[in-house]
Every structure is written in C-alpha cells, then in structure tokens.
Amino acid sequence: MRxxxxxxxxxxxxxxxxxxxxxxxxxxxxxxxxxxAATRGSFAWTNSNDKGPRxxxxxxxxxxxxxxxxxxxxxxxAWYRPVGNLEWAGDADARAALYARVQRLRSWGYAxxxxxxxxxxxxxxxxxxxxxVTEAAWFPEEGYLLTGPLMERLLARAASxxxxxxxxxxxxxxxxxxxxxxxxxxxxxxxPVAADLAVLCAGTGTPALAGIPFLLPEAxxxxxxxxxxxxxxxxxxxxxxxxxxxxxxxxxxxHLEDGDAADRPDEHAAALLARARRILPELEKAxxxxxxxxxxxxxxxxxxxxxxxxxxxxxxxxxxHSGVTLGARLAELAAREILxxxxxxxxxxxxxDRFRAPRDRxxxxxxxxxx
Length: 371
Description:
This protein is α+β, with helices and mostly antiparallel strands and 371 residues long. The protein folds into two domains: 2-43 and 148-215 and 300-354, FAD/NAD(P)-binding domain, CATH 3.50.50.60; 80-143 and 218-295, 2-Layer Sandwich (D-Amino Acid Oxidase, Chain A, domain 2). Helices cover 27% and strands 26% of the residues. The chain contains eight helices and 20 strands. It has helices spanning 10-19, 54-70, 92-107, 117-123, 147-160, 206-210, 265-279, 323-340, and strands at residues 2-6, 24-29, 45-46, 80-81, 85-87, 113-116, 135-139, 143-145, 164-167, 173-178, 183-187, 193-195, 197-200, 222-229, 238-241, 244-248, 254-258, 287-295, 305-309, 312-319. The strands form four sheets. The protein has an eight-stranded mixed sheet with strand order 6-7-5-15-16-17-14-18, sandwiched between helices. It has a six-stranded mixed sheet with strand order 9-2-1-13-20-19. It is globular. The model is unreliable at 358-371 (pLDDT under 50).
C-alpha cells in the first residue's frame, strides 16, 4: 500500500513511524524542516486536565500512556518529561473552578489533588508563590515533551523502514485528487505523487485540502511562546499560573506561553518574561532568546478530526488541537484502521462527516468544552 502523508508535524511523523515497513510511505511538507509550523514551537504539555466529555478525556489519558509506552523504545531520555504540573488560581471564582475540576478529575480516576502552600513549594522549590496563594492543584502524571529530539527519532524510525521525505517545493502539496488508481498529490514542483491513500495532517492547512471548513479562525488558536534564559537555577515542573504557563526547556532555559498575547509578539515577549520573573526569581538575569506565535489547528467543536472524508475514502483527515498529547495514540489507531480497513470504535466520535459540507453556509457550532 502506498500512503502519502501530507504534513510533517508530530501527527504526521508519529503516523509515518507506525506505517513505515508495512506500507510505502512518502512524507510531504512545504517547510524546509519537519515540524516547523506548530510542533516545535508548542508548549508541548501532555495532559487530560480539562478535556471533556468523558470519552475525550479518556482518549487524552490514552495518549499520555502511549507516549509512556513508546519512550523506552525511542530514546525517551532525550524527549520524555513526565515531571508533573502545578497550578494555582488568581481569584475566588477561578479557585472554585480549579477545585471543582480537581474533584471531577479525581472521580474519573485521574491523578489530581490539592496541596497546601508548603507542599507546593516543596514540589517546585524555585517558585515564589504570591502571598495570597494558600493552595495549589498538583497533577503528578502530566508533563511535557521536547518535540525537537522526539521528531528526530520518529522520522529516523520511519526512514529506517523506507519512508521517503520530500520538503520544500517537492513537498508543498497544492491539491489531492482521486484517480482510478488511487490519489494524485500535486505539489509545487509539478510532478504529482501517486498513492493509494493520502493522509491530510497539515494542521491549519488541512481544510483547504479536505474541502471541509472544520477549523476555527487561526486568531482563536494562536499563542505566544517565548524561550528565556539562562535561569540561575533549574525549574523542574510544568507550572500554570494566572496569565502565564512555564516549563523547563533545554539546558537552563525556560519555555513560557500566553494564549492571550499573540498580537504584537515583540512587545509582549519582554512583558511575558517580566511576568515570569515575579513567580520564578531564577529568571532575574535571563533574556528573551527567541519567541514565536504558535498557531495550532482548533476544530470548531474542540475535538479531533480523524478518518476518511465523506464521499472521498482515499483522503483521510488527521487533525487535532492537542497534537502533542494525542499524537502517539491517534497515530496508533489511525495506522491500525488504515492498514486493516477496520474502523476503530475509539475514533467513531471524531469522524469528518460530523461537519457540514462546504455548500452548507450555516455557521458550525462553537466549542462546548476546552480542547
């Protein structure tokens, strides 16, 4: 079976690593380097922290387990960081919502508990907690992935089993057309790639290839990410504080994120570092090393889009907002059903046919829960 994987983010790389050796895989991307759109700039937090309903929560916990299972096989010491996540709220309403979330997650069997101020500082000694913070939420099984080293290993595994990588003009997909023999993937280089199936996992570019408008506008899913350093001492955990998220990066650097500061990134990068210094004094002499606006695809209902397109079974969509958490599990499920032809019951709620066809101009529903 010949499979064209259109997109080399974490979903495309994880899927190629699963398929290669059992199918003839060609990876295509317009970027000069795989994963340069959302994957490498992502905060890369692995979690199922506020992801409802229950079936979607369970899919995300399965995603966390899938990375844990893959780590020993794929040099996990270089990229797998299950260090836990510490979170606190800034006002009474936010605290009530956080405490209710902890209770709901505990009722679902998820590792979550409230800890007092002293224990929170024991979990992450580098923090300077605001005086009014008496409790925090601790999620010990969450963490993050270093997506650069992970991508290298996923693509190396795929290549070792015969996968081909086409980047730049040769990988810039312009159209995917079904033919009598399968599909023809047209590229900017002119010569189409012939395949039996095209997997569309091009992030925010996927709807254009699929012909179905299932994503919210990019402005609604953009976040400012900043790398700052060096820190005087190590940050050990993922931290979520009001208005800012932090996690360790390479060496003594720290990765910062703010989902509400994607406009005017140059100005906001310095402001984000100043905000981080107030809770992490180890950053007092740190500088902004780099920043980016990370735009992840956000389906209109917040949930993944996975499976054959309506009326176009040789085009298979694979898109999600939570690509880092879900990447390994979605790749496993998608590869299994692509190769076997047997639909996965676990993917049934996420099929593309739940969205209106392009000729239906009525507005799609808004997300009902966090992705």
